[in-house]
Amino acid sequence: MKTYTYIIALIAVSIFTTSCGSDEKKVDVDRTSPIAVTVSAIQTNQNNPFVTASGKIQAKNSADLSTRSMGYVNSIPVNVGDQVRKGQLLIAINNADLQAKSAQVDASITEATAAFNNAEKDYNRFQNLFADNSASQKEMDDMTANFEMAKARLEAANQMKNEVNSQFAYSNIKAPFSGIVTSKNIEVGDMANPGMPLISVEAPGLFEVLAMIPENEISEIKTGTDVNVTVKSINKTVTGKVTEVSTSAKHTGGQYLVKVVLNKTEAPLLSGMFATVQFPVAKKASASSMILIPTSALVTRGQLTGVYTTSQSGTAVLRWLRLGRTYGDMVEVLSGLTENESYIVTAEAKLFNGAKISIQ
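Structure tokens predicted for RND family efflux transporter MFP subunit (360 residues):
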């Protein structure tokens, strides 16, 4: 009986193994089917003989408005995209505590004013008495001190009133200039905290570009230089002028900040658009070409970033990269790819290292 049990067990294991082997073989067949992919050649900037830099367009006049007082938002009479005029109310914050403090200050001013008027009358009367030798020097000194203290208390009360009035300005956020509301970061009923950006306003029509220049080219960039600025998203090229050139890269990762103010144009520019600034300065001979690939082609595995390339045997090869600066939807490759290689842009199925591919 025991012998039959072992034989049945061995038959069951054999059937299970055969079944698993069949599934594994099926998976291998599926994985060896070529995956249709599209590839692209490496792009470099070596065809342009001039110094170029990528940057982002922003409004020359823009403001992120916040408050110095804490309170609940009572109303927001504007929406994103609305045109506002200078001094228009944008956000009203509950200021009941300020109103109570203002009433207390008004009462203090009334009391200090009455005390000052009495002290002034006494001071004037004692001045006459002292002139007629009817009051002593000490009495005159005491009256003078009382008058000066009353005057100081009234001045302090008036300054406190000015402080309260300035706090009222922070509970009623108003437009600092005429423009367009570009963002709203709070809703009615929310708690507004000091320093928290609540609403943003931009003045349309005048834009600037902030670009970063490498150290080997920054010495050639001068203020007042006329430049061409290409905005790829709208396929337009506009002109501008260099207005600021940074002399320090301490906080910008070795890149120097250059500000370009754009000339007025009919092109539909918007804040946040990426642009390429071309300076009328020839590249230095030692400057190496830059390899750029689209960010959509990148593959991320934990802390590593790479891209799939093609091998001579028709398989996908995952290549790890060291990346540099980002230019819009493109990123600079510092190492991992060379100029004579191509990479996979899209695939009809999920790629893996060593997968057979069919280039479309």
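The chain is about 30% helix and 35% strand.
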